[in-house]
UniProtKB/TrEMBL annotation:
Keywords: Cell outer membrane, Membrane, Signal. It comes from Shimia gijangensis. GO terms for biological process: Gram-negative-bacterium-type cell outer membrane assembly; lipopolysaccharide transport. Pfam families: LptD. It comes from the Bacteria. It is found in: Cell outer membrane. Component of the lipopolysaccharide transport and assembly complex. Transmembrane segments: none annotated. The keyword Signal applies. This is LPS-assembly protein LptD.
Length: 723
């Protein structure tokens, strides 16, 4: 058995050194076991193990018909069929092998090497050179399922010679042919590809063919550059009939954060006298004392560029830089924002394009009075590039060049009690001081200040019941009464012109989104929450509510649902089932003419289907600069029709106008070695800056090398290879 043990050391170690570098770093440890029908030494001092020879060590397994070790020449001969396996990463099958004593040189006959359970290399002869290179002669390489039925794989690369450099983890091909169903398609004198273990490597990525009704036929050829371990650059030339474009993406990771920059530069026939471009960037960094620095950049050369090249549907761009800190009892933010509208109806000079804000909120738990207290300090400002102090005659009635600065200091306190009968009640108090300075406005020029005291009491009475079927029912009536003093500031309504009334702010002290407007006088709110939790996994929630004002607030618009002394009736519901279906809906019903605002969303996710559908309805509201009703459907779905075929579709329908805004459909075929995608999309929008266009895209990816193909649900089997 000592001789057998020595034999296994030679064989296992030799074949182990033939593995790629990543496998060498995890060499198996522990006892070695050799099992064979016969083990003996010949008179010529040759140790032989034969029969069903199997050697095991850790996750290494070697099976062969016969193994010979010649001590005089230090040559190991292995007679096959030979099966060698290291975990699930490398499998080698050969008919015959000779190995030297240094484990750095080997010759394998009729060898087939399978890497990462995916890429197969079959060759007449495999040479192991200098402990680093695997050299294969007359080789066929493919990631497709190969069966013993005589049929060729879907695709393969045939080469006179293939060199696998395990240190660089690269595969080099000499005189390579790409064959599809054994028909030569492309010839490459030299070809380099990464082996399946390399996550990042320099080289070309999957090209994409595109047909656009405006740009014409074109091709995208991406090239990936690694710039060290922590950064990379992707360059994508896009050549079409009417445009020459260079797309790019730069990424870098740091010890304390990351950033990404992406964009494109184009020379096209639409704007022949100037280059067109866009640049999007974002980043986040962790600083000392729990601070986080984030930035976001969005800029474009003209209003139509993003739509013309199908880069983004954004019609308002936001750039910002912010310093934040969030702790258990603190939330601090210092930020500067820049906004740019791409809508043809907007004039960026008259919009508040620059907005700055500095705020902090601290939380305390005073022992003398109990409860929870919060202190808020806020400073904010907005700037327009226009110098006009009146309305210049555009579509809105706002002063074109108005600039403003506001400051707020507030103290807030709340204490809750739960009574013996289950009633939960509490009181809330707040004292807020607001100061605003308005400049370059003929109507609101100057400084306005106000102190607003607020007191409120709220009540909740949650009740639960266990049904006969094991379901749990919860019902919770709730109510609040509050009073706020002071008067509305005589300033322009720049920050609170769009109000959202929902179940989240039903019991808020003020439902305006900012402090330039506050609710005044006596205000009452009532509501009801209901929920059902089924033991089988599905659940349902319903919420209802209404708000009552002592006197109407003029800055609540019609569709806010809060105009008048009695608000619209708030209704909201949600259903979640155990099979992945989610339904959500919310609406504001005025009790007479119908809904002023409504939205609904449906989502369904399972093994075959992903679906997201939404609907929104907004009544025309002059106070929100909306002259017509807004009604829109949006659908986005993906369905796996069979093992290899997947269909996708997206659609945006303007129900108020009775016409589609966008539509698209796509099909994808995928198996273990190839992915083919075909997509067709149409943009129907026609405006002063955006023209209708149709876009067709085709991609073909050979899986197994640099493309991730770990999902085995697409793999074919030899019993059903045609599937």
């Amino acid at each position: 058995m000592t001789a057998a043990f020595r034999l296994f050391v030679f064989v296992a170690a030799t074949l182990f050194f033939a593995l790629p570098a990543t496998s060498q770093q995890t060499a198996p440890e522990g006892d070695m076991v050799l099992v064979a029908d016969r083990v003996y030494v010949t008179p010529d001092n040759i140790l032989i193990a034969e029969g069903q020879v199997e050697a095991l060590q850790g996750d290494v397994r070697l099976r062969a018909k016969k193994i010979e070790y010649d001590g005089s020449s230090d040559i190991i001969k292995v007679t096959g069929p030979i099966h060698f396996q290291q975990s699930d990463y490398v499998r080698i099958v050969a008919s015959y092998a000779e190995l030297d004593k240094d484990f750095r040189t080997a010759v394998l006959k009729s060898a087939r090497l399978v890497m990462n359970e995916h890429v197969q290399m079959a060759s007449v002869e495999l040479h192991r050179v200098e402990g680093r290179y695997n050299v294969l002669h007359k080789t066929s390489v493919s990631s497709c399922q190969v069966c013993d039925n005589g049929k060729p794989p879907l695709w393969q690369i045939r080469a006179r010679r293939v060199v696998h450099d395990q240190e660089e983890r690269q595969v080099y091909f000499d005189h390579a042919q790409l064959r599809v169903l054994d028909v030569p398609v492309f010839y490459f004198p030299q070809l380099r590809m990464p082996d399946p273990t390399l996550k990042r490597a320099n080289g070309f990525l999957i090209p994409e063919l595109r047909q656009n009704s405006q740009l014409g036929f074109g091709i995208k050829i991406p090239y990936f550059l690694t710039l060290g371990d922590h950064k990379d650059l992707l360059l994508t030339p896009y050549l079409s009939e009417h445009s020459t474009t260079l797309e790019f993406r730069y990424r870098q990771a740091f010890r304390n954060g990351r950033m990404q920059w992406e964009g494109a530069v184009s020379d096209d026939s639409f704007y022949p006298s100037q280059p067109r471009y866009y640049l999007f960037a974002d980043g986040a960094f962790d600083l000392k004392r729990d601070y986080k620095l984030t930035f976001n950049v969005q800029t474009v050369s003209d209003r139509a560029y993003l739509q013309d090249y199908n880069y983004s549907d954004e019609d308002r761009l936001t750039s910002d830089i912010a310093l934040r800190r969030s702790r258990r009892d603190e939330n601090t933010r210092i930020a500067l924002y820049h906004y740019k509208s791409l809508r043809a109806s907007d004039d960026n000079d008259t919009l508040p394009s620059w907005v700055g804000i500095a705020e902090t909120e601290r939380r305390y738990f005073p022992k003398i009075i109990g409860g929870e207290a919060r202190m808020t300090l806020q400073l904010r400002g907005q700037y327009r590039t226009s110098d006009l102090d009146t309305d210049g005659g555009d579509i809105d009635t706002d002063t074109d060049g108005r600039d403003a600065v506001g400051a707020t200091a507030a103290m807030w306190w709340r204490r809750n009690w739960t009574l013996n009968n289950g009633l939960r009640t509490g009181i809330t108090g707040e004292l807020a001081a607001d100061t605003y300075y308005t400049d370059q406005d003929a109507v609101y020029q100057g400084t306005e200040s106000q102190i607003t005291p607020t007191v409120a009491a709220h009540f909740r009475y949650p009740m639960s019941k266990l049904g006969a079927d094991g379901s749990t029912y919860v019902i919770e009536p709730l109510a609040q009464i509050s009073y706020s003093g002071g008067d509305t500031l005589n300033i322009a309504n720049d920050e609170s012109s769009r109000v959202e009334f929902d179940e989240g702010n039903l019991l808020a002290l003020s439902r305006f989104p900012s402090t330039d407007r506050r609710e005044r006088g006596a205000v009452g709110a009532v509501g009801m929450n209901w929920a059902r939790y089924d033991p089988n996994g599905w659940q349902a929630h319903l919420s209802f509510g209404q708000v009552y004002h002592q006197s109407p607030h003029p800055d609540f618009s019609l569709t806010s649902g809060l105009s008048g002394t009695t608000s619209d009736f708030l209704m909201a519901g949600q259903i979640t089932t155990q099979n992945g279906l989610q339904l959500m809906a919310r609406g504001l019903w005025d009790g007479t003419t119908g809904f002023n605002k409504a939205s609904a969303r449906a989502g369904w996710t399972n093994k075959k289907l992903w679906l997201d559908a939404s609907y929104i309805w907004l009544r025309a509201d002059a106070q929100e600069d909306r002259t017509q009703n807004l009604s829109e459907w949006v659908l986005d779905t993906r369905y796996r029709m069979s093992r290899h075929w997947t269909a996708s579709a997206d659609w945006r329908f303007d129900a108020a106008a009775g016409e589609s805004a966008e539509a698209g459909i796509g099909f994808e075929y995928r198996n273990e070695c190839v992915k083919i995608g075909l997509s067709v999309s149409r943009n129907f929008v026609n405006s002063a800056t955006v023209r209708p266009s149709t876009d067709i895209g085709l991609t073909v990816a050979l899986l197994g090398f640099s493309v991730n193909a770990k999902d085995k649900s697409y793999n074919r089997t030899c019993s059903a290879n045609a599937g």
